[in-house]
Write a structure and sequence with these properties.
The chain is built from three helices and nine strands, in the order ααβαββββββββ. It is α+β, with helices and mostly antiparallel strands. Strands 1-2-3-4-5-7-8-9 form an eight-stranded antiparallel β-barrel. The longest helix is centred in the middle third of the chain and has 18 residues. The two termini are about 30 Å apart. It binds 2-acetamido-2-deoxy-beta-D-glucopyranose (NAG). Its main location: plastid.
Length: about 240
């Protein structure tokens, strides 16, 4: 079907055959930490509190806190799949935050970072998160590592302590919020093995809102992602 139908974190449908049989990944020694929920405001030029009931900065703070609160118990989107009303609420919160981001340039240097997926509607990612256990592991951080200057983007799924699946892409900012990308190669790597996989597609995503903590993304397939900045830098 649509090879074009790619997403920022799009992965090939992983089947058990994608993993070397008998080489199940080690159990993670750590589970994913709790999602940081410390919405902060960038230096906002505040109007006196008396002037309005809530300044624009305070409204933004509330919108962001609302979104982070709604996703905080959703297991990165796994629980949302079975709850249409929560999904609708989260999408409303995303739309609200996107209003604050509508004039932002989100494809500049501030996009270069190791980003960590907090919540998504993308089925491939949720499939892996749900099913990693079948392969004797658990899904660790799911990352998007972007270097805007070099035009490189890696989508990374970690299987702690040492397993990783990543897809290399080239990427290019084509508008204030849209980035086009094209997969170039993919690697499934364990402690002592590594499997290169063929490239498989291209697509785009738009960062609708971005700040020093989080980014909110909609992609070519209409999927949503809420991402925060990882407290570390991922390197191949
Ligand atoms: C589904 O979402 C609604 C609205 O957020 C919530 O009140 C309800 O408890 C959720 N149901 C489940 C089973 O999590």
């Amino acid at each position: 079907m649509a090879v074009m139908a790619a997403a920022p974190f799009l992965l090939p449908a992983l089947s058990t055959s994608a993993f070397p049989s008998g080489r199940s990944l080690p159990n993670p020694s750590q589970s994913r930490g709790t999602i940081p929920c410390h919405p902060k405001l960038r230096h906002s030029s505040r109007t006196p509190v008396a002037a309005r009931s809530a300044s624009a900065g305070e409204s933004l703070l509330l919108a962001k806190a609302d979104l982070l609160d709604l996703i905080s118990d959703q297991a990165r989107g796994v629980r949302t799949e079975g709850n249409a009303s929560r999904r609708a609420g989260i999408v409303r919160a995303i739309d609200a935050l996107a209003l604050y981001g509508k004039d932002m340039v989100t494809t500049g240097p501030s996009l270069s970072a190791t980003w960590r997926m907090m919540w998504t509607t993308e089925k491939e990612q949720l499939f892996i998160i749900k099913n990693a256990r079948l392969f004797g592991t658990e899904t660790g951080d799911v990352l998007q590592v972007i270097d805007v200057g070099k035009g490189l983007l890696n989508n990374v799924i970690t299987f702690p302590p040492s397993g990783v699946f990543f897809v290399r892409s080239t990427c290019e900012a084509v508008s204030p919020q849209r980035v086009n990308f094209r997969f170039t190669s993919a690697v499934l790597r364990g402690n002592s093995w590594q499997i290169p996989l063929p490239p498989f597609g291209q697509g785009w995503f738009e960062s609708l809102y971005l700040d020093e903590d989080i980014r909110v993304v909609k992609d070519i397939r209409g999927d949503y992602l809420v991402i925060d900045r990882a407290p570390y830098s991922w390197k191949e």
